[in-house]
């Protein structure tokens, strides 16, 4: 039995952190046990071992297991000591090998804090920046934010390892930086970047642009779901008078304003109004900008929320060495596989339970063929 989705071979280039002396278990076996057990609901090293022992005959269909199932200490030690940058590289290579991104697809980049992974003596919990392909429903890659840094330095590193050609990269205000815009363009992609007070001068000139410009194109959408009515107006200017179009921001082509009004049905909650601004290198119609900006929030709803609710990531207290970062990669591998198994129409929690109970369904999730 061989994995059709290359999971079996993608990590063979990963360096084994252990000494060759007394190395009783193969690194690839340990990695596959970790991935499969997480898919099936395991959330601790002990649960991984318990699951693997209960399914040893299943695992022996595609793993060698020369000395049986590894112990909890072995699994803990291996996942804590694997070089996380190499693991992330392998993860990104695997995604690239099994997916094709359509031209113009939105790739959202955003950060998430793993709150349970904060260690004593550390200034803050571990913070991961991830890239999400909105149309494919896939995590494309992740990178850890250095404790003494922030997302501004992590985002260029993530862009370096991603294949974003012909995509539209959307980032919140933290990523609205000239160097980041330049790197996106150099990778043959386009950007839509949110503008807030961290770019005060740019924000003021965009506001002036919308105050005085007579060449504004607009698109309005009205949604009535979830007990509320939300009206969104996307306004676009491409002929600038106040914003410097050339030089300062690479390939800057449009400035955008999104005005949203949210009214609540059968409720005394007051109407909510918000105005947000963006810059973009894209040449799109207002309705297309509207769709791309709305797609950005899929990274919150389909990735971050699911990691917390479907996988209990925030409750994870893995803190030893690289454990939290590497476990986060396991979760994203599991999430990608579960989301892209289309035959079962239920949420991630239900899919994880079914994969643990039903080996036939687990084979579908893994892409394994007898």
Describe it.
The structure is a single chain. The chain has 370 residues and is α+β, with helices and mostly antiparallel strands. It has two domains: 2-82 and 340-369, no CATH class; 88-304, Transposase Inhibitor Protein From Tn5, Chain A, domain 1 (Alpha-Beta Complex), CATH 3.90.350. It has 14 helices and eleven strands. The chain has a nine-stranded mixed beta sheet, sandwiched between helices. The protein has a two-stranded antiparallel ribbon with strand order 1-11. A hairpin with a 7-residue loop joins strand 9 (254-264) and strand 10 (272-280). The longest helix is centred in the last third of the chain and has 17 residues, at 323-339. The radius of gyration is 23 Å and the shape is elongated.
| Overall 3D form | elongated
Any idea how many domains? Answer: 2
Give the uncertain stretches in residue-range form.
Answer: none
Task: Compute the separation of the termini in Å.
Answer: 5 Å
Largest sheet: 9 strands, mixed
Question: Do you know the CATH architecture of the largest domain?
Answer: Alpha-Beta Complex
Order of helices and strands: EHHHHHHEEEHEHEHEEEEHHHHHE
Helical region count? Answer: 14
Question: Which key phrases capture this entry?
Answer:
Transposase Inhibitor Protein From Tn5, Chain A, domain 1; 20% strand; 370 residues; nine-stranded mixed beta sheet; 2 domains; alpha+beta; two-stranded antiparallel ribbon
